[in-house]
Design a protein that fits this description.
207 residues; 12 helices
C-alpha cells in the first residue's frame, strides 16, 4: 500500500489514480497492531531518498490514531516533527495532525509548538493550524501568541490560521482577544474573528 501511495499519476482525473485510491484505502485501515510496524518502517527508511515512504507511513499512522488513540504512538509522531527536515513531509504530517487527531493531554506537544516558529512559511502555517488538535493550556497559549500579533499585513495568514484554531480550542476568556481583530481592514481576518467568536459562544451555550 505504501508503494502505491507514492505512485505518480498523469491522469486528468486524480480520483482514479493509483495513489489517490491507495490513500483512500489507507484511511479505512483500523488495525492498531500496524502501529509498531509503521514505527519501524519510518525508523528504518530514514534517508532523503526514502522520504516518500515516511510520508505515506505517517499518513497511515495518523489515520489509525484517529480511530484508536494510543498515546505512545501519538508521541512518536509528534517527536518525529523534530527529526524530519523536508518541508513537504512536515507539511503533510502537520496537515494530517490538524485534520485527524485529538492529542491526549499526556502527549508532549513541544515539537509541534516549535514548528509554529519555523522560518519556512509552509511549515509555520500548517503547524499553527495543527494546534487545534490539542486542548492543553500550552497549546492554547501558543495559538493566542499569534492571535495577539498586531502586524496584520506581515502576518495575515498566521493570524487567520491561529484564529481558526482558537475557534475550536478557545473558550469565553478568548473573546476579548479575538475582538481586537473584528475591526480589521483585512476582510479575511475580520471574518475569521467574527466566526471564531460565534463558534466559541455557541460552544459555551451548548449549541
Amino acid at each position: 500500500m505504501i508503494e502505491k501511495m507514492q505512485q505518480t499519476s498523469f491522469s486528468s482525473d486524480s480520483s482514479k489514480s493509483v495513489s489517490w485510491c491507495a490513500y483512500r484505502e489507507a484511511e479505512k485501515l483500523d488495525d492498531p497492531s500496524l502501529l509498531p510496524v509503521l514505527c519501524e518502517i519510518i525508523t528504518d527508511n530514514n534517508s532523503e531518498n526514502e522520504k516518500g515512504v515516511r510520508r505515506s507511513a505517517y499518513f497511515i499512522m495518523i489515520s489509525l490514531l484517529e480511530k484508536a488513540m494510543i498515546p505512545q504512538y501519538c508521541q512518536f509522531v509528534i517527536d518525529m516533527l523534530e527529526k524530519e527536515t523536508d518541508k513537504y513531509v512536515l507539511e503533510s504530517m502537520l496537515s494530517c495532525i490538524g485534520r485527524k487527531l485529538k492529542i491526549p493531554a499526556e502527549v508532549d506537544i513541544t515539537p509541534l509548538i516549535e514548528c509554529t516558529k519555523s522560518d519556512k512559511w509552509l511549515i509555520r502555517h500548517s503547524a499553527i493550524s495543527a494546534l487545534r488538535a490539542s486542548n492543553t493550556e500550552a497549546c492554547r497559549e501558543a495559538v493566542r501568541s499569534w492571535v495577539r500579533q498586531t502586524d496584520e499585513k506581515a502576518y495575515k495568514y498566521e493570524i487567520i490560521y491561529a484564529i481558526s484554531s482558537l475557534s475550536i480550542i478557545g473558550d469565553m476568556n478568548d473573546i476579548e482577544l479575538l475582538e481586537q481583530h473584528i475591526h480589521s481592514r483585512i476582510r479575511d481576518i475580520k471574518g475569521s474573528a467574527l466566526f471564531a467568536i460565534n463558534c466559541i459562544q455557541a460552544k459555551s451555550n451548548g449549541i
